[in-house]
Amino acid sequence: MNPQTSLTQSNPMAALSTSIRLLRCYHHFTFSATPSRFSGLRKASSELRLLSSATPSRKHVRPVSARRKEEEVGSEVNGSVVLREKDRNEGGGGERIVLTELHKEATEAYMSYAMSVLLGRALPDVRDGLKPVHRRILYAMHELGLSSKKPYKKCARVVGEVLGKFHPHGDNAVYDSLVRMAQDFSLRSPLIRGHGNFGSIDADPPAAMRYTECRLEALTEAMLLADLEQNTVDYVPNFDNSQKEPSLLPARIPNLLLNGASGIAVGMATNIPPHNLGELVDALSALIRNPEATLQELLEYMPGPDFPTGGIIMGNIGILEAYRTGRGRVVIRGKTDIELDSKTKRAAIIIQEIPYQTNKASLVEKIADLVENKTLEGVSDIRDESDRSGMRVVIELKRGSDPAIVLNNLYRLTALQSSFSCNMVGILNGQPKLMGLKELLQAFLEFRCSVVERRAKFKLSQAQERNHIIEGIIIGLDNLDEVINTIRKASSHALATASLRKEFELTEKQAEAILDISLRRLTALERNKFVDEGKSLRAQISKLEELLSSKKQILQLIEEEALEIKNKFFTPRRSQLEDTDSGELEDIDVIPNEEMLLAISEKGYVKRMKPDTFNLQNRGTIGKSVGKLRVNDAMSDFLVCRAHDKVLYFSDKGTVYSAPAYKIPECSRTAAGTPLVQILSLSDGERITSIIPVSEFAGDQYLVMLTVNGYIKKVSLNYFASIRCTGIIAIQLVTGDELKWVKCCSNNDFVAMASQNGMVILTPCANIRAVGRNTRGSVAMRLKEGDKVASMDIIPDALQKELDMTLEVHQRKSRSMNGPWLLFVSESGYGKRVPVSRFRTSPLNRVGLIGYKFSSEDRLAAVFVVGFSFGEDGESDEQVVLVSQSGTVNRIKVRDISIQSRYARGVILMRLEHAGKIQSASLISAGEVDPEDEYEDEDAAAVEA
């Protein structure tokens, strides 16, 4: 066998050097002109010269021709390149031909190099969780005697020891590895105690190795280096075969999961998160007690990673995937707090913890850049107040800024929320392997069992040898006079040994032990000590033999040793686990849930405005324009909702669409708006007739739908929780009918319906049978010829007591004008309030009672139930927004509208000389308006009027 080949197989470093030499050969190929006898192949091939490193001098280099393989070995392989070399040892034309395909040679050389990188540098071993450089550093410190109770020594001394004896690489690589093992923000349980500047979480570099000092941590000695001298692991030669180094360290707990690991090799990488020591030992104990434990059972003891920098782990989906398959994505958020300054009334976001492997200085700089570029709004100042006591980054907010929105923007735009991609790859049985949590723990237990077994065999061998000698010494002491006489008679040491062996049937070791015993140990007291030691050794031997014969006892001992480390070095969990579906931020998380106004025109233009766009005005004024409208366009609906609401859009064809409220672009009062076809998938000629904002799809909520021809139906709100982009059917319509009004209600509410001629029906929602979406419904009210349904509103359950008094009041024919009231608005701009007590409840399919007596040219535009909230004077605290066909808007107080009888005409709400008719009306609660703004609006309205 070639010596170089055997060296390559026995030493990975030799394999690496051989691979490098083979790769270097390709750089020595030179191309030259082909001899004239190969003129036919001049353009197709060229001569290759291989400069072999084995050639002693350049004059012996022979040309090696590159030919098609079919020319050399026939037509077995088409188009392969071979190397041909003459053998100088053979005379004449003798030559040695080595057929080597270059792509195979390159592949084998590169694979050899890749495996050398995988096993020797980049990936940790599953059993002790260390890479070779870390293992060598800890072993070198152990050999130097740098225990946790000894004084510190210069890091340069340790680095020199590692380089000179075990790790023939750069000193920077060794020192960087040593520094990382001493950083409490890099390792969950640091393995080295550092003294001096070892870097910071701001990515500040450590001081030079000549300035820093180090020693081992007590945890390292107990967890990795205990029992190292008891033949627990194999020792291998170092790089120059001058010393031995351990191939592994006898770890007592899974260090790979405790401190994690990261590394990039050739074609693969590893990234394992750190975990809490106590939880890891508990999970290991659970697996020992129940080898068939499932992943869910292990997660009860170790629910997730525990990063040294703390933070909040969002959700457990990524953790489950990582523990099950070895690959997963864990989302980590920094831990923050909100502080409110009582003097300035300003809020501040305090960053107390940041995600793992995040540079704090870069994070602060990134936030400052976002604020300067106007990408992050609402921040007035940033300060880093971190000190020895802990981390504290203060982000002061501007007055009026929402801390939750700013914080969500920080999560989305900066590294304050980051992800840790788990890729749990380690070296197992000499090969890289991707493993889940249970497989990692099982691999460690198998290794730990072998360590305990080898340690027990080592102790048993020592105890048996010592017991053997003790037995001989006791025999000698029992026959002391004969032993002394035998020794006296012997003329030499060898004869004395032989005589003792023959006289007392002793072994050579026993005889040597008797000869080596000192005279002072020949007393009776010393004999008793030897007897007691023999008893103790026999008990120890029996215990060790019992241990080796029982796998259960070995596992029990492993658990006891692990629990001992846990009890001594346990620390509380730092990373907080938050049970959420995902840590991903959506647009809704960074948008304030503010109140907003939605305005929709007949031709399908929608726009979003702030609620204070329209000033509060007096009754009977002209109002303010809602903005530009297209030709022959008119306002269709006007409502109030919040940005996070899910808006349901109901069309005249009975189809419902859905889109978040914040998706509608915000614009000014004078803007024309956005076409709904850009937001919804509307068909040709389809119009949106009603929109319903929904904050939560509650199970006890329903939607009541009313058509122009007077058909009504009630559908559970849950049917509309998930709506596809093309919409779903809300109601079945007959030809000529269209869906006009949709309201949200519960079974305890009441429905108030009114026709264009002013007829009113009050009926409980419970009387309307709940049906499915794809149905028509039943007749709501019996309409006279030429009459149509004009409006519908819901009387909430909060007003039920007043409604329960309706019958009693009606029976006594009371003339009380107390609320709640029905607010009527006519198309000509008139309106009035009528007490609900003036109407009695009735079933569906009835004509109803007169609520408004109109002139021949006027009709009812809308009806509302008012009286939900009251001011200090006991009057209604609501406001109504009126929109004319030309787009003019007027917002007035409900309390300014007169309370009249059912037959009265009402008072002027809005003058419509040049504004057409009232197109729509909406109700707003005054409790959502700032009182100071209200007074300012009133003054402005008075001046404008």
UniProtKB/TrEMBL annotation:
Enzyme category, top tier: isomerase
Annotated EC: 5.6.2.2
Renumbered residue ranges of the record's region Disordered: 54-79
Record bears the keyword ATP-binding: yes
Biased composition (Basic residues): 57-66
GO MF, one annotated term: DNA topoisomerase type II (double strand cut, ATP-hydrolyzing) activity
GO biological process per UniProt: DNA topological change
Catalytic machinery residues: 211
Family: Belongs to the type II topoisomerase GyrA/ParC subunit family.
Protein name: DNA gyrase subunit A, chloroplastic/mitochondrial
